[in-house]
Design a protein that fits this description.
- α3 crosses α17 and α4 crosses α12.
- The protein is globular, with a radius of gyration of 24 Å.
- The longest helix is centred in the last third of the chain and has 29 residues.
- The two termini are 32 Å apart.
- The protein has 18 helices and five strands.
- The chain is 60% helix and 6% strand.
- The strands form two sheets. Strands 1-2-3 form a three-stranded parallel β-sheet. Strands 4-5 form a two-stranded parallel ribbon.
- It folds into three domains: 192 residues, HUPs (Rossmann fold), CATH 3.40.50.620; 72 residues, no CATH class; 88 residues, Tyrosyl-Transfer RNA Synthetase (Orthogonal Bundle), CATH 1.10.240.10.
- It is mainly alpha-helical and 395 residues long.
- β4, α13 and β5 form a beta-alpha-beta unit.
Length: 395
């Protein structure tokens, strides 16, 4: 089976990238024909203003991928922008993709709101507007056949309108002041590339006639949209593309050092470029159960990020069980618990650091491998585009 996936080079890779994506890719390359690419064009959809670090970020991703177990001799590891056919297919698919498909993509707004830190505001507006929507439904002079769906649709659109009105200065400005997001930020996010990124993503998959894309459940709408675009192309011009299926993957959630989702923007991540001293500093400052103030206080490991990390890095199951038991009873203090974690975390990180050092010494050789693989990918992409041009009657 041919598997296709990519990763944006937006900064240093951290533990969340490994457990969320790369660990699964390493397994897939042993069983399938895999195409994994550094999605530098996709990085521009949100970071088009700042490209100074893009080339260095690409190098860092190369190093991390191989240090973490991806093999350029087993998988086709390449750079998206080195295969220009991605852009050509994206252009042609864009001609036949209805704008409404992109606007209705549920992750489009989610990405924008996360990027601009508007998620909490959206939640706040929705909560305050619920009663207004209920009263509006009661006052309508006609019957609504699907009330729950209509209510959800109305609440979603009314909230969106309120947020837009806020940035237009039509709502009290105090709310906008606490966001630290300007009107310019709000509208400059709405670029053609940002709206159309699912078309480029579809081109990334279809150009290799990808049969499967490893994703988490939150990315299923992306794959369904790619399937829709493939179906529409095949119906209009003849069957060229397989409809890619989602390869649902088990991705254990690793919280950041503060308990939230691990993210560079939250400042709560452990990076593969971190030194032993930097990792120790981060681990010893990790959040724990807020009710466990003193060593002898009973803890709740199920809500503690430190224990969540133990389940991933402490390989001795009996020890993990003992840690859980001693935490609940108050026998084990948080400082000692973190020291135990640090030992096992370092056993995981140290070999990766050593591999990174070796790869950094031979960066030209590694870059050459990615360039050769990019040429290999381009040969396949070029053959696909010949079929596409012929099917669409292009010269």
């Amino acid at each position: 089976m041919r598997v296709v996936s990519g990763m944006r080079p937006t900064g240093k890779l951290h533990l969340g990238h490994y457990f969320g994506v790369i660990r699964n890719w390493v397994k897939l390359q042993e069983e399938h024909e895999c195409f994994f690419f550094i999605a530098d064009w996709h990085a521009l959809t949100t970071a088009y203003k700042n490209t100074k670090e893009l080339r260095q970020n690409i190098r860092e991703v190369m190093i991390d991928w191989v240090a973490l177990g991806l093999d350029p001799d087993k998988s086709v590891l390449f750079i998206q922008s080195k295969v220009k056919e991605h852009a050509e297919l994206c252009l042609l698919l864009g001609m036949l993709t209805p704008k409404s498909w992109l606007e209705l993509n549920p992750t489009y707004k989610d990405l924008k709101y996360n990027l601009l830190r508007l998620v909490d505001l959206e939640r706040e507006f929705k909560e305050k507007l619920k009663e207004t929507v209920e009263n509006l439904l009661k006052s309508l002079p006609f019957q609504i056949t699907k009330e729950d769906k209509f209510k959800e649709h109305l609440l979603e659109n009314l909230t969106q309108t309120m947020i837009e009105a806020l940035f237009e200065g039509e709502i009290e400005p105090e709310i906008l002041k606490r966001l630290n997001v300007s009107k310019k930020d709000f509208y400059e996010t709405d670029t053609f590339g940002f709206l159309g990124y699912p078309v480029l993503q579809t081109a990334d998959i279809l150009i290799y006639k990808g049969e499967a894309v490893p994703v988490g459940e939150d990315q299923l709408p992306h794959i369904e949209l790619s399937r829709e675009i493939a179906r529409r192309f095949n119906r209009l011009y003849g069957k060229i593309f397989p409809e890619p299926k989602a390869l649902l993957t088990e991705t254990p959630k690793i919280p950041g050092t503060d308990g939230r989702k691990m993210s560079k923007s939250y400042g709560n991540a452990v990076f593969f470029t971190d030194t032993k001293e930097e990792v120790e500093k981060k681990v010893m400052k990790m959040f724990t159960d807020p009710q466990k103030i003193r060593k002898n206080d009973p803890g709740r490991p199920e809500i503690c990020p430190v224990f969540a990390w133990h389940k991933l890095f402490t390989k001795d199951e009996e020890l993990v069980s003992q840690i859980e038991q001693d935490c609940r009873s108050g026998k084990l203090g948080c400082v000692e618990c973190k020291r135990i974690l640090l030992k096992h975390l370092e056993e995981f990180l140290e070999p990766i650091r050593e591999r990174r050092k070796e790869l950094e010494k031979n960066i030209e050789e590694l870059e050459e491998k990615f360039l050769r693989n990019s040429e290999k990918a381009r040969e396949i992409a070029s053959a696909t585009m010949e079929e596409v041009r012929k099917a669409m009657n292009l010269p």
